[in-house]
Amino acid sequence: MAVETSRVGAAIRGEFPIFEHTTYLNSCSQGALSYRVRRAYEEYLDGWDENGAEWEHWVERAESARAAFARLLRAGPGEIAVTTSVSQGVSGIVSALDLATRPRIVISEYEFPTVGQIAHAQELRGAEVVHVRPEADGSIPPELYAAVVDERTALVCCTTISYRTGHRHDVAEIARIAHDAGALCLADSYQGIGAIDFDAPALGVDFVTGGTVKYLLASSGLGFLYVRGGLLPELLPTQTGWFADEDIFQMDISDYSPAADARRFDAGTPPVPNIYGGLAGMSIVEEAGTAAIEEHIAGLADRLIAGLDELGATVATPREPERRGPLVCVRSTDVRTLVDTLAAARIVCSERDSNLRIALHLYNVDEDVDIVLTSLARHRHLLA
Ligand SMILES: Cc1ncc(COP(=O)(O)O)c(C=O)c1O
Q: What are the structural domains of the chain?
């Protein structure tokens, strides 16, 4: 146990060469590249070179990815679809909804564009999309959902952690509100998975989606969709593909017979190279343990927020540890210039709206926080 919990901070940083020259605080956009993930891609290429089409092995790797996602969510592998993106998972969900009986889809203002756009695309099928907008302080309390979720609602979408402000939402309560009205609930958790301890069944949510680009430390082209097991008999996605069939290798084109489990939300040929990278990235997260990672990040976030307060900056992310995660946002008067100025000093952050986004992960240390704070003090005029 002691070994596991020590695989954060200085103990893991050497796996990520970028820290030799850069203060990397941008895991909300893209996790840093490790030697392990680079080697995994090489292993894929070597196997392909040596053995040709290793399809049996590659399909086994896809099943290993399903199992790894399941462990991270404390779900069963039969509750996980392996996808290429959040977009694929969400399109699969809406394709399974009966919008004739329940036309309403509720989304929060903090949804990632893909979720909002997929919801609005359903207007072509008769959907009515309702937005839940944040209060003046940027929070979205569950009561705001309760005001618009009704017996005509099919799906309620929330985001575990806002990519725009770092707010963490009460997913369990939002799911309860959805269920009270007979609706289903989706939590886009891309900005949390890998950085927070996550228990999908305990939250009671119906769907959880995310991918490996950010806190799971790998590349684009691999994601997951959790579908609560009990729900599966009712849900038939019409967005599908041969890897979602009950018997993939039967090659039968005479009917639609989807897998009994969440694999029915898979689609075409699995993204094999990304699966190699994803498994390597997830192994780093799993070795550290998500509880230890969350605790490590919370300590760094406390230090960062205290430093920002000393600068008199306006922190857009809530202060209470249970209402935030790995992303701390601070208001800027000219955020593009601020991101560029930090980049010139080899400090990598990002921006959304007028917020500077500072993302913390297992490989960050106190020194990273102090470096960004020192630089922000020097450019105080760019903070609101
Ligand atoms: C909250 C959130 N959802 C979804 C995505 C990406 O969606 P997709 O995998 O469809 O590109 C991102 C980031 O890229 C994100 O931050």
A: 2-33+289-382 (3.90.1150.10), 39-285 (3.40.640.10)
